[in-house]
Design goal:
Elements: H1 12-25, E1 35-38, E2 46-48, H2 53-61, E3 71-77, E4 80-90, E5 96-102, H3 109-121, H4 134-162, H5 169-194, H6 199-202, H7 204-224, H8 232-261, H9 267-293, H10 299-319, E6 325-327, H11 328-341, H12 347-352, E7 367-369, H13 373-376, H14 380-386, E8 395-400, E9 405-410, H15 416-435, H16 444-467, E10 471-476, E11 483-485
Helix pairs in contact: 1-15, 1-16, 4-5, 5-8, 7-8, 7-10, 8-9, 11-15, 15-16
Length: about 500
Amino acid sequence: MAPITFKQGPSSTALVREAVTRATLATSAPAAEQIQGAEVRFGPPVKILAGDATSAKVEKEKGLDLDFGSVLCWEEVNGRRCRYVVDSEKNARGARSVKLVSTDNPPPPIEEVVSFIRSFVVPEGFPDSVTPSFVPYMSWRALKHFFGGAMGVLTTQTLLRSVGVCQNRSASGAVAINWILKDGAGRLGKMIFARQGRKFDYDLKQLRFSSDLLLELGAGIELATSAAPQLFLPMACLANVIKNVAVVTSTSTRTPIYKSYARAENIGDVTAKGECVGNLADLMGTGMSIMISKHNPSMAAAFTIFSFGYLFSSYKEVKNVVLNTLNRARFNVAVDSFIKTGYVPSLKEGNFKENIFSPPWERRTSVDLGSRFGDAFQEPSSFLTIKPLFESERYMVTYNPSKDKIYALLKDQAKSDDILKAAYHAHVLLHYINSTKQKSTDFTAQLAESCRVVSSSYGAFKHKAKEQGWITSDALLNPGRARFCAYKEQ
């Protein structure tokens, strides 16, 4: 598709290509613009050239800005504050290093325990993230399940005795307890995985497909109990833990998927029909399996065929889900397309190109959003060199050559749009870094060029994304929880 030309400026493709060319040529030369006397928000004033990292470093190493113990910035993670200061020790390159200093007293053990329990039973951001009726609803729901669990023990014992598993009352009780232990282990696994919370919103498709993989693994372990009946209880418990984790994931991701198909506020009807289709297909599959089992087929061969069909169907199922929200995977598709062609893909195209096989816990990514200061900067001079470029922004973007990764750090006032812009800027900088054949530790030229292009193209990206139907007001980019805090003398 031809590059898009915007009304009030050159095409985004031309901007990117021009910037990449200039960044490549300017790698060994200082940037044209000079930032003088900038009042820096995160520390004392500093006078530097934005593109001349070498001269800035020499000036600071003389002691003008890098006095031992000088506060570089404050950081807040999960309500706890710490600060980064200039360390007295120097690294292998002879430059000052960064030291983390905690300012809060460790919380009492009881507070840690309460916080740990809360992470299982209430959503992130509670109570602001839910309506006032959430607490009474969940209280009565918990009481209902308490009595339901008690009844389950009685009914299981009765059923086992009724089918003649064991006529002895005490023996049937022991068998029932073993069976209940198996189910209890599964519920424990369900509780532990429910702690993942927002990941069910961020990486819906990836988790949905992962849950089906886990379900097949659990079924395989159950099948293996026939080969080792003496290990029935531990194997059955393990299988039930795995399968219940899969059930939590499947249940948590089901509603958003149905919601994407409900155009007339009819999510209840869509959900009911979807579950009905699933149950009908399940009954038909059960009938076919009963018919096949009468001919004594190879259990392993039949299981392999059914598993392949199940996983292939699961993959095609999630690939046909079209969501209008921007998570990390879909955002990568949209931004990469925009940078290279000036074109934002449609909802269908963007969802189709989304990588389903990228697990949410994958850490080997090129962009780290919401980073810790200590991960992004190892030397104070690298931080002081670039921070004037982001004085008017609620984020900072940098590149760490030693880790070959882009870091986007968020300030404490950062809102949803600031997070989206930080992620966009990180991808633009990544494009520049990858376009430079010889990667250098002095990347300030590319960073300065990325700032120029982002300021002129970010609005166009959002506009084109909205035209295609993407929701940009509340992106699901799953940033880290670390936030910069304003430096203040204590």
